[in-house]
Amino acid sequence: MNWTRLVGLAAAGLALCGCAHTANASGPTQNPGASTHSTHQTANKPAGNRDSAPTRTPFTPALELTGNLDARPGQLVGIRLDFLTRAQGRDAVTAHSPAFNEPVPLRWQDDDSYSATHPLAMTDKPGWYPLNVSVAGHTVAHDRIHVLPSKRPSFTVTFASEVARPGELLWLNFDDLYPGERGTDFTVRSTALHQPVRLVHDERYDFSNPRAFSASTELAPVLADGTYTFTLYGPHGHRIAQKPVTIRASRPGDADYLGKAHGPDLYDPTLGYADAPHRHDFTVGPAGRVAVMWHDAVPDPGEETRLTAMSPAFTQVLRLHRDDSKSADGDDPRYLNTATIRTGLKPGRYPVTIVAHHHRVIKVGYVTVTTRQTH
After folding, report:
1. Which of 70, 96, 217, 263 is deepest in the core (most CB within 10 A)?
2. Structural domains present in the chain
3. Where is the composition biased (Polar residues) (predicted)?
4. For every residue of the chain, which 3-state class applies, written as one string?
């Protein structure tokens, strides 16, 4: 066999398996629970040109694992092999690890990568487990999986403030990743809630834990101070766990007792808040319109969805909405909406009232209705 044919065959073998003359390098990725190991190779001299300098392939297979660090038995591990064409992989890319119950085939993803998601065996013991990825039986990359001991199922109730407030948003979570646990029908009940809340698995937030169940909900807006029990029920109404939560309304001296409220500011909606004079008095004609703005740096929990402005001059109660526009930069949080003046009103001065902080804050502005349309 001549020199040209020998070198050509060697180069073809390297391109397929990527395993000869290799060195592994690892580094952090954007995902804190992932690690990356790449295989580097040096190509032989092109066949038929012995005197040319050695060249390097631009890309070699790069392995990225997600969820492989500090994992628990049953947790999902993401496996991704980049920089491998379908012609090279030929649907023969497989991950092997004693942490899995079986070899894991990786599938082509149409973006020069092969990937798969697979659970760790529930029987895994704590420790480090090797993982190798092969193409047609040739190992091209490797990494490790760190497994921690299993944890008993846990039920948690969390909220943003130091003390749970009536009307506050809270999160309910049940971590059921434990050998032998089954079922997906979980519900939380409490007299502090409007109604029972069903927990569900959300893959967007619980990617690595296939048995994480959660939901968000609001406490009832009016609750007496005290300790309330949150009870988690499983399938067929079986009680699994209970969690006591202390709920207390804000009191004088608390930062959120009266918030930092001011308003209502009234102005011409056609000009906008930045350009129109805004004051607590506004003159408008029948069927005219008036914009209402309210400021409060520390509203009561849940109050953002309940703020209203009321006036006998309005066609209906005006629900105020959070202003998330760019014009609110440096002037946030604030809430606004535009009201329509009733027709057939007698000329006069009519109050515009906003009630906040469970009636602890009541502020009033005025619209003066004229006999003619002014805006």
Report:
1. 263
2. 3-147 (2.60.40.1930), 154-247 (2.60.40.1930), 261-369 (2.60.40)
3. 26-44
4. CCHHHHHHHHHHHHHHHCCCCCEEEEEECCCCCEEEEEEECECCCCCCCCCCCCCECCCCCEEEEECCCCECCCCEEEEEEECCCHHHHCCCEEEECCCCCCCEECEECCCCEEEEEEECCCCCCCEEEEEEEEECCEEEEEEEEEECCCCCCEEEEEECCCCECCCCEEEEEEECCCCCCCCCCEEEECCCECCCEEEECCCCCCCCCCCEEEEEEEECCCCCCEEEEEEEECHHHCEEEEEEEEECCCCCCCCCCCCCEEEEEEECCCCCCCCCCCECEEEECCCCEEEEEEEECCCCCCHHHCCEEECCCECCCEECEECCCHHHCCCCCEEEEEEEECCCCCCEEEEEEEEECCCCEEEEEEEEECCCCCC
